[in-house]
Amino acid sequence: MHKRKFENRIVLCEIIGFTIAVFMLFADEVFDLPHYLLGAPATPINWVESFMESGFVIVLAIITISNSCCNLNKIKYLEGFLPVCSFCKKIKTGDTWIPIEEYISKNSNAVFSHGFCPECAKKYYGQYMQKEDNFVAGDLKEQARKSKESTLKEGGFLF
Length: 159
Fold this sequence. Notes:
This protein is mainly α. Helix content is 61%, strand content 4%. Strand 1 (91-93) and strand 2 (96-98) form a beta hairpin.
């Protein structure tokens, strides 16, 4: 709700700004503001110029406001405090705990891919690593081949 009010304020400020610009263009042409305010020579009213300038500003306003609305609708941001489990890193939303990947995917356009850091690689795959901290290619290639074969036999898809 708070986010929607903020978005409405932004669009309202743009509308007010462009309305003032159009009004000032008309006022300048109709009341000859430079003549009265700055003592410039008087000029006759040029309605064609006034309508062209105002029309240009209105088209610019429509483009700018519609672009702002589209961008504001695309923006998804996280606010406030998120209760996160110290162990499993799930996030509490209301009365339920959901995985952090699910929460961020629902509240943003982020797409997750999983991997593992060097510390976890050593911790969980240490038996496949050499002293130089490189994976033993033969063992992993063989396991990957077996996994691929079993996935295909079960009718699964490989991505």
